[in-house]
Specification:
20% strand, two-stranded antiparallel ribbon, single chain, alpha+beta
């Protein structure tokens, strides 16, 4: 969430930064400023009326001591109370309207982020490895998976519908091995492992920016507790600190958090309908950093490098791209995507998105930090990145490590988890 005080004092800068994103937010900012002005004026008026009411109440005793009639004073107090009540209703309405606008305003892109319309304007930062070449025509992961008997789409559709898969045999072991490998790797680099709940409440979804803007993409649990299936481990992990003051001595906080994620994939009709690139249910290891604001962008570079380590260890060709303003997520101030090479498509596909949301999520979730006993409260920078999306790693391994006979060589780093060096 953006800071209303910052918007008030830097309205033109905010309008200009938001103009770099898709959509027109000028009207929203103008409406917000007008509501804020009315809100602050009403606050001032109500304080003046309360002061008058208090003064009138004090004069009752004095009037009684002097034997004066207090009827007019009581009538005056009643009138003041009615005016105060009316203003309190107005103030609450202004607060709701202001919050509603702020809830839908995206984060300001960092000033040095590339201005662009969509993914075509993203910039390659570095490339690791060359696209895999074959002496035969490579197959898609779903062809390989079905032929090997390790991916079952038909029975998954029978059980749950489209965009689900059953991992079988060495396919299930590959998925499980990747999760264990990622958690082992990240925990060895200073991350604390987490396995948070798969269900979360609406306050948690609001705190990290999924609600209200992206509510249509969430799976609701139809009971009376108002729970939702977790869309990413980012949500439960960050919300561990919702409405809390963090002791600054524990920063930086670094978690590698594993969950199964659930998404409706609203708006993705017709996209990636075959295979496991875009599923309603998938596994993901998420990296979360909570740091002091001055460390935010140093941490973004480090977190991105830590996510890259998975691809380097797996020896998969990939590149890192910096997202332009038109392709960044709602809460992000700056984002790097890791994209892995997919031979059947002859292109790179996203496998991780690493972002610094600055204090955007901290404000929404009311997460603050105090450096020491004498320091004022402040909002930390919160960063997140997939480390990595497990299903998409399966895709990349099947396609990049495939052999002409349809078998798949197991990456060396996974063999101790898999118990074999080949899937056939």
């Amino acid at each position: 969430m953006l800071d209303i005080k910052f918007i008030r004092e830097n309205s033109e800068l905010v309008k200009e930064r938001l103009s770099r994103r898709p959509g027109d937010y000028t009207k929203d900012i103008n409406n917000l400023l007008a509501l804020d002005q009315d809100y602050r004026r009403s606050l001032q008026e109500v304080e003046q009326l309360k002061a008058k009411s208090n003064q009138a109440s004090k004069s009752i005793g004095e009037a009684k001591r002097e034997g004066k009639d207090t009827k007019e004073i009581f009538e005056s107090i009643a009138t003041l109370k009615a005016e105060i009540q009316d203003l309190d209703i107005k103030i609450a309405s202004y607060q709701d309207s202001i919050k509603n606008i702020l809830d839908y305003l995206p984060n300001l892109p960092k000033d040095d982020v590339i201005i662009g319309k969509d993914e075509n304007d993203n910039m390659e930062v570095r490339k690791i490895g060359e696209p895999t070449k074959f002496s035969f025509k490579p197959k898609a992961h779903y062809e390989l998976g079905e032929a090997l008997g390790i991916l079952d789409f038909n029975n998954a559709a029978k059980i749950a519908g489209a965009r689900f898969v059953i991992y079988k045999g060495l396919g299930a072991r590959l998925e499980r091995s990747l999760i264990a490998f990622m958690m082992d790797l990240h925990s060895s680099r200073g991350y604390t492992e987490l396995m948070p709940p798969y269900m979360i409440n609406a306050a948690s979804m609001y705190g990290t920016g999924q609600f209200p803007k992206f509510k249509e993409d969430a799976f609701a649990v139809n009971d009376d507790r108002g729970l939702y299936l977790n869309p990413t481990a980012e949500v439960p992990t960050i919300n561990m600190y919702r409405d809390e003051i963090i002791d600054g001595s524990v920063l930086p906080i670094k978690y590698c958090s594993y969950t199964t994620a659930f998404r409706k994939e609203a708006g993705s009709a017709g996209k990636d309908t075959r295979g496991i690139i875009r599923q309603h249910q998938f596994n993901k290891v998420e990296l979360i950093n909570i740091v002091y604001k001055e460390d935010g962008y140093k941490s973004l570079e480090a977190l991105t490098n830590e996510a890259e380590e998975v691809l380097k260890e797996l020896k998969l060709p990939y590149h890192v791209v910096e997202l332009c303003t038109g392709d960044m997520g709602f809460g992000s101030a700056k984002t790097y995507d890791l994209e892995v090479w997919i031979p059947s498509e002859e292109r790179y596909r996203e496998i991780s998105s690493c972002s610094n949301d600055e204090d955007f999520q901290a404000r929404r979730a009311n997460i603050r930090v105090r450096r020491d006993k004498t320091s004022p409260l402040e909002y930390p920078h919160i960063l997140n990145g997939s480390g990595l999306a497990v299903g998409r790693c399966v895709v990349a391994i099947l396609e990049n490590y495939q052999n002409e006979d349809g078998s798949v060589t197991v990456p060396e780093v996974l063999r101790k988890y898999m118990g074999t060096d080949i899937i056939k």
